[in-house]
Amino acid sequence: MSAEAGSLAPLLPATLHVPRRRERAARVRTLALLAPAILLALLFLYYPLVFILQMSFTEGSSFLSPGGPISTTENYVTILNRYLPNVFVTLQLAFLATAVDLIFGFPFAYILVRKVRYRTLVRGLMVFPMFGALYIAFGMRFILLPGGPATPILQALGIASTDALFSLPSVVFAMSIFTFPFMVLNIGTALSNVDPTLEEAAACLGARPWQTFARILLPLTRAGEPLLLGSINEQRALAWTVYQRGVVQTDYGLSTAMGTVLLVIAFVVTYLSLRYSRGALVE
């Protein structure tokens, strides 16, 4: 036995190196496959973010001027002193639109998943509002302007067409139409993963419909209910100000600072949404 052990001893280091070489080769192949995606992300995602952040600390359009950029922090001070209400209005509109979508989207998603046979066709038709907020805005103007289809109803209620068009409910309604498919698709996906026998078992145990909703459906579909929808760029309260300052007035420093604030808001909202959705983030 000792002679056999002595003869096999020189072969052990070589056999141990074989798995290590294979692991290294696998790592190299993995890095080689990920390299194009990492390069694209660095060039077209992270570098523009750094570029925007750097521009947000410059004065006016000096970042692109031949004389060179003029560094300043007044852009963020201006946002805090002058445009902070725009940020709150943006969040208010997003919250109201999300609440409307949740109230009407959950029953619609439930009927779509549980009752409708041709749900794929219905989901396909729901893509149309995603084509853009501009089409929805023109549609709202056509409906609510004087002489439009909604004029008789507004006159019966004693509401002027212009007051209805340029009001908070009309803005929230238009935003809800645009974001409604996102809510329905998210909740529908979560409901598809809920076993219908759980609802039947609850009914057999004497649970009422609202108890089944509150104790079974709502907790199990939390992953499909965003805290705030990821359409923060569609909230025109601050986004329109970014357009005016950046494109019309060529104040690139202040406009990019506003864009940075929107990015931070979007990041915080996304993080909280994932935290609210159980298991979406790995601790």
Mind explaining what this structure looks like?
It is a single chain. This protein has helices at 2-8, 11-55, 74-114, 119-125, 133-144, 151-157, 161-165, 168-192, 196-204, 209-220, 236-248, 252-276. With 283 residues, the protein is mainly alpha-helical. The two termini are 51 Å apart. Mean pLDDT is 76; it is low at 227-236 and 279-283.
Characteristic key phrases:
single chain; 283 residues; mainly alpha; MetI-like fold; 2 domains; 12 helices; 73% helix; 0% strand; disordered C terminus
Coarse morphology: flat
How many strands appear in the DSSP assignment?
0
Q: Specify the structural class.
A: mainly alpha
Chain oligomer state: single chain
CATH superfamily of the largest domain: MetI-like
N/C terminus separation: 51 Å
Strand content: under 5%
Mean pLDDT: 76
Q: Which topology of the largest domain does CATH recognise?
A: MetI-like fold
The top level CATH class name of the largest domain: Mainly Alpha
Low-confidence stretches: 227-236, 279-283
Biggest sheet features: none
| Helical amount | over 70%
| DSSP summary: helix tally | 12
Q: What are the secondary-structure elements, in order, as H or E? A: HHHHHHHHHHHH
Instruction: Compute the number of structural domains.
Output: 2
CATH architecture group name of the largest domain: Orthogonal Bundle
Computed Rg? 28 Å
